[in-house]
Amino acid sequence: MKPVSLRISGFRSHLAPTDLSFEGRTLTAIVGPTGSGKSSILEAISYALYGKTPREQRAVRRLICSRADTARVEFNFLIDEREFKVTRVLRRTGAGQHIIEDFSSGEKVVGETAVSTHVAELLGLGFDAFSSSVLLAQGQFSKFLEATPKDRGVILKGIFRLDQIDELQKAAKARRDALEGDLKLIEGERNAIPAEVAVILKEARARETEAMALAAALEKAIPRERDLLHVLSDAERRRGEYEVSIERIKTMTGRLPKEQELQELATEEKQVRTLQELAQDALGVAEEALSAAVAEGEALEKELGSEAVLVDARALIRDRDSATESIERLTKQRTKEAESREAAVLAASLAERVLGEASAGLRTVREKQGALQRTHAAHALREVLVPGEPCPVCEQTVRTIPGGEPPGELSEIAVQEKAAIETEAQAATEARGAAMRVAGLNAALVAGSDSLAALAEVKEARERELAAAFGSSTTSTAEVEARLVRIRASRTLVEAARVAVSGERTQIDKISREAKAFESRHLDKTRSLIELSAQVELPAPPADASAASLADHAAQVRDRLGARLKKIQAELASSRSEAIAAAGELERLRADLDLTPESVIESVFADARAAAGVARNEAATAEKQLARSKELSKEEKAVKARQALFRALATDLTAQQFIAFLLEDRTRLLLELGSERLHTMTGNRYRLELDDKNELEVVDELDADKRRSVDTLSGGETFLASLALAIALAEVVTRAGGRLQCFFLDEGFGTLDPESFDLAMDGIERIVTPDRLIGLVSHVPALRDRIEDQIMLEKGDDGMSRIASGQSL
Question: What does the pLDDT read at residue 163?
Answer without folding.
Answer: 61
